[in-house]
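User: Can you help me understand a structure? I only have the sequence.
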Amino acid sequence: MWLRLLVAALTWLGHAGRAQADHQRGHELRLAYHNEWAVKVTGGAEDALLVARQLGLRCAGHVKGLEHVHLLVKSEHPAASRLAAEHITRRLADHPKVVWVEQQFSKHRSKRDILKPFNDPSWDQQWYMARAQVRLRRGPQSAGNMHVLQAMRQGVTGRGVKIVIVDDGLEHNNTDLAHAYDSDLGWDVVDGDVDPAPRYDRRNTNEHGTKCAGIVSMRPNNGFCGVGIAPGARLGAVRLLDGIITDRTEAEAFSVFSRRADIMSVSWGPTDDGHVADMPGRLLQEAIETGIEHGRDGKGVIFVWANGNGGAQGDSCACDGYASSPFSLSVGSVDKQGRMPWYGEVCASTLAVTYAHGDPDSVVTTDLYNGCTNGFSGTSASAPMAASMVALMLEVNPELTWRDVQHIVVYTAQMEPVASNGPWVTNAAGLRYSSWVGFGLVDADAMVDEARRWNLSMSANVTRRYCQAEGQISSGPHQFVSGEPARVTFEIDCGGEHEVRHLEHVEVVLHLNYTRRGALQADLTSPQGTTAAVLVRRRLDDSSRGFDGFKVTSVATWAENPRGKWTLVIHDNTDEDNHGQVEKIKLILWGTDVPIHQMKPQGGEEPARPVPSTKVRAFTASGPETPSLTEVDMPPASGWLWNSLLDIDGASPNRQAWSRTDHWPGVPLAEEETLLNRATRPGMRRL
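Assistant: Let's start by predicting it. Here is the structure, written out as tokens:
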């Protein structure tokens, strides 16, 4: 008898345990328990009726489509209760004809709509921050995405980063800006005081800076206007554009916070009328270099510069020495469909583009008189967008140098969303470039992820070093006319203490005269065969002054090895009767002697691990009379290559493991070892 009782008890426990397990399996939220039980019986409807009758429940029939599962109801039990009726469930589970039982309970289910993450009234119009799909004329197509919301979902808002808007003033008491404004980062160049508030007039002449600032700092979830890309950053402003502009005032605007600011966002430059070719003056250049060399404790201020809105006038950012400077992170714009807008400018110095133009909705941002607008556009909007994304990067890794930031932008930019823009070239380092949109559309999430992985051993040193070789073209000034190009070659052999094996910026210094400057075009071809249009025709530029020391810049050959013959072809393809002469051309190559970064561009193969760098190198050469220098080539397919980050000794996960696939051609092994050891040492306009 005792044996029978033990077996019965174990059977009951087994049924009850199984039913309880089924009851709780995989369910996290029970809103209410109901007075009905789903019961699977060994037989059919007769067995279900028998179980219900014996235990005082009513059989409400089988669950539709499941003939062996029946619904039993306990009418006198509450229809909904916060507590489970475990005693009824146990009695059902104990019945020999019950396979399993589960008391029914209500659950919360939500429709798979996109949840609105912010309560700000204009958030729904901020398509450029979070979007899924648009319909293009060619049919449905996945839209590009700057992945701003994804970056923000990492909890990154730019905290601790200081962004200064250099413009026409800032309405810093605006509801969406007051939380971010830092009065220690405010200066008025025009009036010479610490308050950069704009001058108000009937035409709202000075709304530009406030609009730029809103893109950065609009406070989320305050029920006002929209959401900034870096609302956690500290916001500063310099009021400059509402006064007389001289080299001195420009220099003051950039130097006053050169040791306190992390980022300066600039949405203006020389007039976009297709006539002007201008560069920073001596004082401004010195102020910018001070920010680069001494700002952020030597890591350099990041200058983000809009590349211009003069496309309708045939203007080119190649003739804007502000945006095309190697010290500028030059950005352009595309519209909702990823197309270059009508105002876009073409040049070989643009690093990347942002969305900034929509129809009918453009960019949401703050406006004067505590206002809000959804009509801001142009590269004026692109600069603060990119500056905000840089702030997100600096929050997760404040040790990034100004050149690290440019490298990360280059290697994370997306080609696919903007692939329809202009001719693309794939350079010898595998990077794809278009002078219409740079390396592609910025990707905030990828930029933040890459910034997290970056470390000091990968960082480019901000020290500028260069070797300069002055000299004129060997045959003297070279005459040329319409239809007959001038050709200048450069034999580059960067070596010694100024060796450059991995390019960043390339500058061409032009000394030439011509009867109509705007008719000229210039194409620079690297030894690896990459051609960049460093100067493009400008139909409205009728100047006969030519270029006297004007610098044009290219980033198309980023990461290439510069060794070998470079060719610059200057031509006039018009049918006009123009003529002139090339007096002197100088080539300036900026880069490093070891690769800063060996990531594959987005959409490519799994990125290779980056290699730490030494100090920045630069080399210049003029014409064919280049000094003979030695260089050890390090092609990407041979030599000492970065293999992986390995925990070699179990305690040092950052130790570097190298693999030697082949020796450097013509270099003794002892010299290879030396090189390897060294490589592992730690009148202005608004756009």
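Now, to help you interpret it: Residues 463-631 form a domain with the Jelly Rolls fold (CATH 2.60.120.260). Residues 114 and 132 are 10 Å apart (CA to CA). Let me know which part you'd like to focus on.
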